Amino acid sequence: MGLKKQGRGRKPNRDPKGPKLRNMLGAAEWNTFEPPNKDELKVARVYVNYGIESGVNLEGALVRIANRRKFPVVAGDLVYTDGNTVEGVMPRGKVLARYAEESGIRLIASHLDQVGIVCSASDPPFQETFVDRYMVYCRIIDLPLFIIMNKMDEADPEIQKRLEPIQAAGVDVIFVSAISGRGFPELRKRLARGITVLSGMSGVGKSTIINRVLRDDEMIPTQELTKYGRGKHTTTAAEVYDFRETLLIDTPGIKIFGFLGVDPTQVQHGFPDILALSEKCEWGGCLHQREQGCAVRAAVEQGDLHPMRLRAYTEILEQVQDQQKPEY
Ligand SMILES: Nc1nc2c(ncn2[C@@H]2O[C@H](COP(=O)(O)OP(=O)(O)O)[C@@H](O)[C@H]2O)c(=O)[nH]1
Ligand SMILES: [Mg+2]
Ligand SMILES: [Zn+2]
């Protein structure tokens, strides 16, 4: 009895770790709210969340409105407003979510059509495992993904070869240099497909790319960007930029994705080589750990699959399993 009461007393809906998040990746309805008087309100797009306020695009003007604790908002959100405060949040479509031990799952950006992972061909060095994490997440929520390989003006000569397995798995790679402008016509064409989140480690060149994309396009004068406090870099927050008929969202790289509600058997969908091998596993729900008759582990032992691949997969599997622990 006492237990039940306690359970009800918690506020799962407002707690970022609450059980409502279980369906977040599927529907992204978490913490959305349709106000009863929505006909009297306007709809604005959140460009950046400053904490107590958000910078929103309201009928073409960038204005600041007050956030409300009960409706946390992220870059890309469509919110209802009277022009002064956030009064509601529309359902979010596809989202990017990260996870941290201390804070649980946090949304980063919403209403996404595609993800561009920005990587560097020189410094910081390219890491396949960084791409793996995005592949798992994006395959699970069916969000198109491509790679922007930047700094091709000083590329590591091995880089093209290292990308071959990723391209073979169906991921497009656009080779660019934000310094020389190489690859930018192709990049702009790709970015025009829809709302694109650009994500990548610090220092890979995201800000330089966005500046060049916008400047060459003559859509937003650079002084407009600085006027709204951009350019000075806050790597923790996501920010929206207008690009042609659509939007670009700058975000920091994600180390651990928010995988809550994801079934551990889905993880292999981000690893096409492991997925193909798994068809021969004895067990239907084989996770390729200690199961009998596992074809994936057998392939590693026979030298047909690089042990790094199984390790990369297992690392993400453990994150997914960790986030399923009942304390949430
Ligand atoms: N050589 C080279 N350097 C670049 C390129 N793009 C960006 N950089 C440099 O890389 C550093 C980090 O760029 P920045 O855009 O701040 O990276 P961000 O942290 O991802 O936003 C800066 O010193 C840029 O001048 C490129 O295509 N080639
Ligand atoms: Mg930056
Ligand atoms: Zn197996």
> What is the correct CATH architecture of the largest domain?
3-Layer(aba) Sandwich
> What is the top-level CATH class of the largest domain?
Alpha Beta
Q: Care to count the β-strands?
A: 13
Largest sheet: 6 strands, mixed
Small molecules in complex: guanosine-5'-diphosphate, magnesium ion, zinc ion
Question: Number of folding domains?
Answer: 3
Using the CA coordinates, give the radius of gyration: 21 Å
CATH superfamily of the largest domain: P-loop containing nucleotide triphosphate hydrolases
Helix content class: 25-40%
Tally of separate helices: 10
**Could you list the spans in which at least 5 consecutive residues all have pLDDT below 50?**
1-24, 219-223, 225-235
Per the CATH scheme, the topology name of the largest domain is Rossmann fold
Order of strands across the main sheet: 10-9-8-11-13-12
- SSE-based structural type: alpha/beta
Beta content comes to 15-25%
Instruction: Give the SSE order as H and E letters.
Output: HHEEEEEEEEHEHEHEHHEEHHH
Distance between the termini: 21 Å
Give average pLDDT, whole number. 84
Overall geometric form: globular
Q: Would you write up a description of this structure?
A:
The chain has 328 residues and is an alpha/beta fold. The chain has three domains: 2-89, OB fold (Dihydrolipoamide Acetyltransferase, E2P) (Beta Barrel), CATH 2.40.50; 96-252, 3-Layer(aba) Sandwich (Rossmann fold), CATH 3.40.50.300; 264-322, Ribonucleotide Reductase Protein R1, domain 1. The chain is 28% helix and 22% strand. It contains ten helices and 13 strands. It has a six-stranded mixed beta sheet, sandwiched between helices. A five-stranded antiparallel beta sheet has the order 3-2-1-4-5, with no helix packed on it. It has a two-stranded antiparallel sheet with strand order 6-7. The longest helix has 16 residues, at 307-322.
